[in-house]
Design brief:
It contains two helices and six strands. It is mainly beta.
């Protein structure tokens, strides 16, 4: 992709993972997400997503990118790690995932 293509890449969904991920999983997922801090000071991982598929019973399939890049990554995240999913400007949110 060219730089002008990267400017067209827009987040349709946001996925934020829980703060209590196991250390190894947090480290692995942090290479594909932005680190954000909650109001209570907890470090969370935020994925900017172009596509989400919640059709698998164990994994959330996402296609995400880091802002300012033109590379998307396909990831499978266990549902139990997801704090919430929000929709983008042009799409309604899929919904919230909560519980233990």
């Amino acid at each position: 992709m060219t730089q002008s293509d990267a400017e067209v890449l827009k987040s349709q969904f946001s996925v934020i993972l829980k703060s209590n991920l196991p250390p190894l999983e947090f480290e692995l997922f942090s290479h594909y997400a932005r680190r954000v801090v909650s109001e209570s000071g907890e470090e969370l991982l935020h994925f900017a997503c172009t596509k989400i598929d919640d059709g698998h019973h164990y994994y959330l399939n996402i296609e995400s990118f880091l802002p300012g890049t033109d590379i998307t990554d396909s990831l499978k995240i266990p549902h139990q790690y997801v704090l919430f999913i929000s929709g983008g400007e042009d799409r309604r949110p899929i919904g919230f995932i909560y519980g233990d």
